[in-house]
Every structure is written in C-alpha cells, then in structure tokens.
Amino acid sequence: MSKRTWTNSTAFKTAATAVAASLVLFGSTASASPTPRHASVSGVTINVAIAYPAPPKAMLAKFTSQTGVKVNWSYLQWDDLQTKIAAAAEADTYFADVTDVDWSKVGEYYVTKWFLPLNQYFKVSSLTSQYPQLSSFVRNGTLVGMPMDVSLLVTTINEKLFRKAGITSMPTTLDQYTKDLQTLKSKGIVAHPLDIPFAAAEGLSTYWYELTAAMGGQVLSASYKPLFTAPSSAGYKAMAWMVNAYKTGLVAKANLDYEDYQGFETQMAHGLVASVFSDYSGDIGTVYDVASQSSVVGDVTYSATPGISGAAPNLGNPDGIGIPRSAEHVQAAVEFIKWMEEPANQAAFAGAAGPKNVISTFPLPSNRGGLSLLASSGKVPGAADLVNLVENHGRAVFPAGAPPWYPNFSNAVYTNLHSAAAGQESVAGAISAIASEVNSLNS
Amino acid sequence: MVAPLLVFILALALYPTVLTTIDAFMHIDALTPPNHFAGFGNFTAIFSNPEIRQSFENTGWYVLFGVMLTLVLGTAFGLLLQRRFRGRGVVLAIVILPWALPGVVEGVIWSWIYDPTFGVLNSVLKSLHLLSQYQLFIGTRQIESILLTSLVQVWQITPLATLLVLASLQSIPGEVYEAARVDGAGWWQVIRRITLPLIRPGLAIAAVEALVLSLNIFDQVYVLNAGATTASSVMSVTYFTTFQGLNFGQGYALSLLATVVTVALSLGALKVLYRKVTF
Lengths: 443, 279
Known about the structure:
The complex is a heterodimer. By secondary structure, chain A is an alpha/beta fold. Chain A folds into two domains: 45-151 and 318-386, Periplasmic binding protein-like II (D-Maltodextrin-Binding Protein, domain 2, 3-Layer(aba) Sandwich); 153-316 and 405-442, 3-Layer(aba) Sandwich (D-Maltodextrin-Binding Protein, domain 2). Chain A has helices at 9-24, 57-67, 78-91, 106-112, 124-127, 159-164, 174-186, 202-214, 234-247, 260-267, 283-288, 330-341, 343-349, 368-377, 383-393, 406-421, 427-442, and strands spanning 45-50, 70-75, 98-102, 138-139, 142-143, 146-147, 153-158, 194-195, 275-280, 300-303, 314-316, 319-322, 394-396. In chain A, helix 8 crosses helix 16 and helix 16 packs antiparallel against helix 17 (427-442). By secondary structure, chain B is mainly α. Chain B is 73% helix and 1% strand. Chain B has helices at residues 3-23, 41-47, 50-82, 88-100, 103-114, 120-127, 142-170, 174-182, 187-198, 200-215, 219-225, 234-244, 248-273; strands at residues 26-27, 36-37. Chain B is globular, with a radius of gyration of 22 Å. Chains A and B meet through helix 1, helix 3, helix 4 and helix 16 of A and helix 1, helix 10, helix 12 and helix 13 of B.
C-alpha cells in the first residue's frame, strides 16, 4: 500500500488562521500626501463619482472642449457610494474630485468637514432665488454641496383603477384618500391598493416623514427634539396609519420585504396597486410610462398629496454634488459643477432636449432656469405638474437641515417601523424606541 | 521562496490585525471627534446594545445552519459525484457555478425565488398544494428568516465543500474498499467505518470554510433582509455601525471580536475534526 499524507497539519492550521483573520478584518487608515492644486485647469482629468449614470459622451465632450478638463465619470449605486465616501474620508485618501452630497448627509458632512465649503465659488445669497431646494445643502451659512437635482416625495395615482372603482374625482384630503383606497379594495379592483415599502430601508423612513407632513406636522423640531411621541402628534398618527394600512390589507403582506424601488417596479408599474403616497418625482417618466417595464403606461398621474384639509407639503430629497477635502483638482471640479448647474444642461439631463441627452433616472433640474426650460419643452410627462408642486408645495424634510446623526435616526425609524408592521412590536413601542434613540443621539 | 508569501500575510493580515486591535480600544467617531483612548468602552457599548446582541444570537444560528448544511450537502454531493457516469464533467461544472457568483448577485437571484408576490418558491409550493396562498418567507419569523438566508450562502459554499470532499474521496485507495467488501462490510458500514474517517481532513477544511463564511455572512443578509434586526448578522451590524453611524471605533471592536471568535472556533473545529490520514 502506498503511503500518502493528505496535508501537513501545522502548515494548514497556520494558513487557515491567516485566511480567517484576513476574511474578517477590514483595513485601517493610510496617510495621504498633500494634494497639489492647479490654477489652470486645461489638460486636467477629474474623477467624478456619482449615483447617476453618466450623461451622453457628446455632452461631456462639450464640457471638455469648453474647459480642457477631461471627465472620468464613475456611476456607483447610492449605498456603495456612501460607503466609499466615508471610507476614503476617514482614511484621508483621494477618492474623487467631485462626488455625491445627499440631502440627508449635509449635517454629517458639516460636522466631519469631509467636503470643501463651496462658499468661495458660489454665492449663497444670490443662489437662494434660483434654487428651490438650496436650504437642504446649507448649514450655518456653509454651502456643503450644490444641488444636483430637485427631487420631491409626491403622490402618484393610477387614475384608470380609481375610475374603475367609480371614483371620478381624485382625493384631495387624507380622509378621502383612505376611503378611496378602501373602496378600491372592497370592490376588488385591486387586492391591495396601496404601496408602502416596509423593508427596513431608507424608503420606509422617508414615507413616514411625508405622511407626517401630510398630517400637519414634522418629525423633529428645529433643535432636533422628537415631535412624534404624543398619540395626538402627526408623527404618531402617521405611523399608526401606515401600520394599520398594512394590517388591514390596504398594503400587501409582501411589502414587508419590499424596498421603495421594488414597490414601484413590481407593484405600481404592473397595476397591482393603485397609489403610492410617497413616490419619487420622475417615476412616471422613468418607470410607469416606460412600456418595456410597465403595464400602466398613461394611467398614472402625479396628484397633489392629500393632507388634512387639502394639498399637503411635498418633502424634498434632492441629491447634491460637492468636492471632497482630498480632491486633487479643486478648480477643475468647480468648473465641472458650474457646468452641471447650467440651466440648459440641467433641463437636458431631465429630458427637455429629448432622450439623447438624458441622464437615466434624473428627476428634475436643480434650478428654476432649468425647471422653466423643462416645463416649456413639453417633452417629459407630468413635468409641468411637478414644477408646480416644487414651487407651491415643496418643503425640506428638516427645516433646520438634516441632523448630523441623521443615518442613525433613519436606521432607528425604519427598523422599528418595520418591526411594528411585522407585529414584533406595537406602534407605541416603536415610537418610544425611536424617541429614545433621538434623545440618546442628542445627548 | 517564502518571502512573497510572508510579505503577503504581513501586509494583508497582520498589519490590519494590529491596527484594528489598537483602534478597537480607541474612541473613533467621525461625528464626535477627537479620537482618544477608550479602554473597553467600545466593547461595553457593543454588549449593552440590544440590537447588536440580537445579531450575535442570529449569527450563532447562521453558523449552525451554515456548517451543518454545508457539510451534509457537500458530503452527499461528493459521494454522488465520486461515481463515474455520463455527463459527470458537465454536472461538476454546474455544481461549481454558484461558487463563482458574488454573494450580492446570489442574494438578488434568491430574492426573486423567495419573492412573496412572484416568487418561484411560492409558485412551486402552491402548485404542489403545500400552500393555499402565497406566503411571506423572510421578515416575520426569526429562525425561518435566518434559515432561508443561510440557505443562499449554503448554495454558494457547498460547491467548494463538495470538491474538497471529492478530492479526499479520490485519494482513498481502492484496495481499502476491496478489503472491506471481502470482509463483508455493507454500504453504510463502508461509509461510516472507512469513508467518513478517511475524508476527515477534507471535511475539516470544508467545516472551517463554512464556519468562517457563515460567521461573516453579509451580502445575503443585506440584500434579503435590508436593515431589519430579525435576521441581522454581526457583519451587517458592523457595516451599519461603521459606515452609517460613522462609529469606526465600535466597528473596529466588532471586527476584532469577529476575528477572535472566528480564529478560536476555526482552531476548535480543526482540533475536533482534523486527523492526519496516511495510507
């Protein structure tokens, strides 16, 4: 019989230990060298990391011909991008010259100073009249990022299904909206007429903020104290309404696993639900009216969000762009942001110049010049309605700006709201847990 | 000869380990600077956080399901594939396929399978009259959610376990089986008395692989479960603590804990399972 040894145990154990260690550890920091800055931008190549697909090459080529700056555009998923921004900033390493500044991160970036203040390049006082959602990017006078788009939480309604249920005038109050949803269900038009994304993710938190605003309140005070603990408060009633909608079947049981985009794409786009109370502005053009992914083309409209006694506010959730502190080509980055902000370009990204210049999923232009061009172009479904909502009903989620600990707050909101819908805790318990987290974060 | 390997291990394992160990005892919170020595503060905070404690329990279930199922399925598939049959090469290639897919992709594929509205699993169970209506599989019940999430990872790591078992099986000389048959041993006796003891080195590696990966499960949890605590894992909590809460100190502490537990359990598994096999 031949003698074979399968493996050497000592070597194997050493290797297994090393593999085990390397699999679970993540690297620590590396120091960065001082970053050179150039007065002249021509010939410079900048890296742009954004959660939107790149605009058409011809548009970027136009920027290059104007400034001599070449652009490497990296499209990253929003979550991945936030992780990379945080990791690079904490490690003080170069990541990109221009990247995403989400409205929800402005408080955080103001405290961490991970982004260069843009005040020396853009005058806040002269921007205010041009940018309807500028306040989301300013903290104590510091311009942390420039708005890259205008984005709102809006109510979408499948009018065809509503009419099928005998509802001829669309709801303008929350009471009427609730009754209409019950009618849609009781008449069997759709088994579950409402989409609420109950997966424990950001979309659930923003849904609650929007419903709270519709009930006449807000979730946090200007000093970031919880305003939702009393059962009579708008925030408490909004959460109870959402959980009740789930438990009474207005919302499908499946929604416990659905994030916002899944609800839009699998339910609303296929007529399985008749309304999304807190939808994203732009979804009609980018999802519901796209024949290849929707069976409700032409049926869905933006509706004024039903409130207590009429149209409710539409909360803004815009994306911005900014310059990380470790950027290597600051001046070129500034030129790029200025180019991105040009009203004609903004309108083109949103579809005013036809599909060839569109940035996929781009909602609305960041400034009034771009909004006006878009509305007058007549090329994007519902654009005029949305511009009206922006101008007349738009409001920031937090009037004092997002708190620096917003991600922790949102995490507490969506985990507890998800648990309440799943029956793992009561609404009162969820409210109490969120308030406790807010108090802890404030201290 | 060993220098490149040594540099590799020092740079990619030892250096981060040392830094992580140091930083685990530091207050490093981007929102409340400056950084300073915190002693066991990060660990105290971790153990007093009920959501993190829940993730410890959940991860225990992930390890239990992951290791057991991977070993059982890996051994079963290894035994099946040991036999020569037509198309064996093709079957082997298909079996390996899940191993090549990234965890996130697998999570997305299985989220379609588990989908409570359109999912294949609901469809199959309903057509077999095992369900009267479509069910929500993930999100409401802790153990069921963990088991189904764990299955996705088992689907991914079983191919490697199968190959390890198969390699071990093929290293067993045929004479051993012949001798057993001459002595009148039955199928089960051969498996129990000869096969399983002689493939212990392969099983030990497969067990450590399953242990390490299930202790550090993240992609599948993130895709299927998002941020819910029902089926959270230590790694998902580490991610949220570090990159969402920006509490890097607690993130390092959690990583260090995961490392220590992983190494300890891996060595324990090797001690229990590994036996030097000579023929």
